[in-house]
Amino acid sequence: MVNRCVVRRAFLCGHDAHSGQNFEHRRGWVETRIRELASVFAIDVAAYAVMSNHYHIVLRVDVERARTWSDDEVLRRWTQLFTGPVLVQRNMQPQLRALMGDAELAKVAEFAGIYRTRLFDVSWYMRVLNESIARQANAEDGVKGRFWEGRFKSQALLDEQALLSAMAYVDLNPVRAGMAECLEDSAHTSIAARLGDLRGEAWVPVGAPALPAMPVPSAASAPDLPGLLPERALAALPEAALMPFDPTSRFAQAVPFGLEEYLDLVDTVGRVVHPHKRGTIAHHVPPLLQRLGMDTEAFIACADSFFTTFAHAVGTPTSLIKLACARQSRALRGMSAARKMVCHPNVVREKMK
What we know:
By secondary structure, the protein is mostly helical. The chain has helices spanning about 25-40, 65-70, 70-80, 85-90, 95, 100-120, 120-140, 160-170, 175, 190-200, 230-235, 260-270, 285-290, 295-305, 305-310, 315-325, 335-340, 345-350, and strands at about 1-5, 45-50, 55-60, 155, 315.
């Protein structure tokens, strides 16, 4: 997922050269809200990077988890974000629920069915994320109107190779943009948060400024999502942990790689100089690419131009062909890059010698 700020100024989440003001703290707002919402939705966060005028997130939707929730659990989660209809509010209070009739309870069950679907819908996750940040920024600026450029853009990740490429692209964004010298200094990124966890540090990105209190939105910055709870309620949400790494691939809720080999890969890719980027972290062979049968040079090229190389889906040639057949489409953009990126492991090893 990627979403950009509207160009009201050069950098709505960074330094405003026009006024001299610094809005760096808004990157912290976005990062915190990404993880808070993951504690409510049946959606896991694999990677993220909050830049000065846009952000990237790699998400995993867990439909089965949402289906195991009882109606009461669904309503509890939904009302952590929205006030809900009067019937739902009454249902949440045992004394008032005991007075409700069968027709009213049936209507509540109907609401629960709607909310259950929304709680594993990335569109609703993004709507709440974007709206909650927009109303705080508008309140801080004393204005109203659009904060984000438009609807978010998304790409389906069809296999492990696609997941690896997307995560590497996202985690390296600040370094490639020249905003950080190394992975550890990449404030407001998942990679910095993971490295902090390894060092036993509390989850606060390196170099991140202290967050000021979020302003209270005025009537002029009323939300586009009716019923969305005020910031003081949303700020009380717990922050979900990032998706763990599991090289055994036994747990569907985990990233199917080892953390150490992933860090090694990202560090190696980041050391390759790219002519169109200002930053690099400057060379050895990533074992993870060998195991997945991926060509190093093509992988690096893909990680540098991920969103322009592929369209709505990313994956190996086999995965893209399956998707094209399912859609009854003759071709999908990115097939050429996918063919270059994947090769037989023996060929990869030979190239790396």
